[in-house]
Amino acid sequence: MTALYLNVISGGILIGVVYALIALGLTIIFGVMRVVNFAHGEMVVIGMYIGYGLWSAFKLPPWMLAPVAAALLFALGYALQLGIVNAFIDRPQHAQFVLFISFALMITGLHLALFGPDSWPIQMVESMQSYTIGPVRLDVLRSQAALMALLLIIGLMLFLRFSTLGRSIRAAADNLIGAQVIGIRVRKVYAVTAGIGMACAGAAGALIAPIFDTQPFLATDFTLIAFIIVIVGGLGSLTGALLGGVLIGLSEALAALMISPALKTTFSYALLVLVLLLRPNGLFGEPER
Amino acid sequence: MTKRAIPSRRDLLATGAGALATSILPRPVFSQGAPVKVGVILYLSGVQAFMGQQTRKGNDFGAKVVKEAGGPAMEFIYGDAESKPENGRIVAERLIREGCTLLIGTNDSGSTISVAQAAEAAKIPFLINIASAPQITEQGFTQIFRNFTPAGTLVGNAVARIKELGATTGVEPKTAVILHVNDTFGQGIMKGVDVLWDKQQVPIKILDRIGYDVRARDLSVEVAKAKAVGADLLMPITRVSDAILIIREMVKQNWSPMGIISPGSPGPYEKAFTDALGKYGDGYMSCVPWYNPTNKRAREIASRFEKEMDARFDLNAVFAFEAVEIAADAIKRAKSNEPAAIHAALKTTDIADHISYGGPIRFDEKGQNNNIGVVMLQNQNGKPVVVSPADASEAKAVFPFVPFDKR
């Protein structure tokens, strides 16, 4: 029984770290621009298709798929922000919602037209392998995905803390007028932020592609899970996204084991309601000033 | 001089609504001598498109074979219900308006009921190729003809096959755990198993029943939980993608029970499953209606289908193919493209030589063919083969199956 619990807990933590990378993308965009990206799950699915394509063409190992997907999604996010989203930054929230929901529908439609509704599975040697550490069996693909996701999350946190551009992003998030006064080109900062947010989604998608079969309809699930994580962790909080991801991964796994597998998603929503009741700003979020 | 009544606004509205209703109600358009228009309603897009596309291949191939054999002229018009049950009726009504005097479909119980309502309203015969919900033939529909096993019969036969397993292989499993998709289909099959297990006094104890969400992409916890039960048999009730996930997890978690036997669900016999899992897909057993491999014509049809359609002649294709043959037989005897004549001909269907395993194709007063048999398949060397019952077997069951770590 101990082995069962250890296996389930470790599996939950591993997938939770990848979920955290998805949520990080959503929270950084919101934290800096106060824009909610309803097409975030669709960006993850783009990353999955990129991962699938790279694997099919070059048989790259899973951890190498993520940087390429991240770079491509960064470019897409940067271009979208400069070309379209910047024009909506100062518009009412409902206009922003409609814009991102339109993006989501267009991307899913495009996926369906290009790849069809069927699942695209990645079959690699690692798909059937696991590491054995005492009584614990760690899924190879999940372990690699979680490690790579963790490295990307740490790298992003270091970038935001220590690089000049990272500091500009934080400045724009903390005090927009102040940032403009000291000469930060906010529109460019927004574009970089959107690029980073979508790169997180793309990288997570490429890491997930060997674990979940790629198909267009997964997008909504990813968007919802990202929302649950950032609300539980605290909107705009990077630490909250990381710990929220792990918490959701873990709670889903334990709920499946201890209550019922059919209720694991329900449990995430219950957790969300509980956090909203007890800590409306999330576990690590700060009250709006 | 009489005063002429001026129609009121209410009269105008009522007349307009009546005219509109008359114009939009589906009405078939017949033309004598022309090919019979057959509407085929399937899920050709959306989440269940894989099965729909496979069914379409069976339908197309059936049309080809009937044409080669000099069968009646039929024009097949496809309608896509987009994996949404409620679309069945809308698509059926459109096909009826386009002149279809026979409908075939739909590979899903929900949309089948929806199509049956449209067929009933327009009095157009509806030949059901695949759909197992028991209520389809219990709602008083007069236009339906189902050439597929209802869930109860399917599960009853499947349980019988599982019960026979000990006697035919000499190995008696003692316990089982059910892992099932938690939707209407999964719960229906599971409840059927529960009832029939006791009724048929199967000497295998079911230790646990573990349900999982229909949208689940990760079944690691579910498989870990099933493994912890320590049963001799795993009985999964799945569709193809979750069947693949289960086996992947079993390999990773190094769990090899005595056997894996599905008591009547799609998945393991499909090409997507065996292609995805290779040697790890072998050994999986499933109890389903299938073509009869001891029938020479069925073997030839299967072999031709696989070459010409580049697909496996699986359950979807078999029953799609057979539906076309039943339709051709009825139209030939009806000597008309009138729906009433086709309906009357379908009522008297009696086809002894057909490709699926079971007795003659005949429909009872509710429109059900009760003579469809269920075989036990086992994946061996990357493809499904019939291992039971004896009169349809083409190979011996490998039981207990080869553990995953010994492959």
Which short descriptors sum up this protein?
A: 2 strands; B: 407 residues; globular
Explain what the structure shows.
The complex is a heterodimer of chains A (289) and B (407). Chain A has 289 residues and is mostly helical. Chain A is built from 11 helices and 2 strands; from the N terminus they run ααααββααααααα. In chain A, a hairpin with a 2-residue loop joins strand 1 and strand 2 (136-139). In chain A, helix 2 packs parallel to helix 4 (93-115), helix 2 (40-58) packs across helix 8 (186-208) and helix 10 packs across helix 11 (264-278). Chain B starts with 8 loop residues before the first helix and ends in a 19-residue tail after the last strand. In chain B, the strands form 2 sheets. Chain B has a 7-stranded mixed β-sheet, with helices on both faces. Chain B has helices at residues 9-24, 49-68, 87-97, 109-122, 151-169, 184-199, 220-229, 240-252, 271-277, 296-308, 315-334, 339-347, and strands at residues 36-42, 74-80, 102-105, 126-128, 144-146, 175-181, 205-212, 233-237, 259-262, 285-288, 375-380, 383-388. Chains A and B meet through helix 1 and helix 10 of A and strand 7, helix 7 and helix 8 of B.
Short description:
The complex is a heterodimer of chains A (289) and B (407). Chain A has helices at residues 2-33, 40-58, 62-83, 93-115, 140-162, 164-174, 176-181, 186-208, 219-233, 238-258, 264-278, and strands at residues 130-133, 136-139.
Largest interface between protein chains, with number of residues from each side: A-B, 35 and 33 residues
Structural class of chain B: alpha/beta
The percentage of residues in β strands of chain A lies in: under 5%
Overall spatial form of chain A:
globular
The secondary-structure element order of chain A is HHHHEEHHHHHHH
N- to C-terminal distance of chain B: 101 Å
Count of individual beta strands of chain B: 12
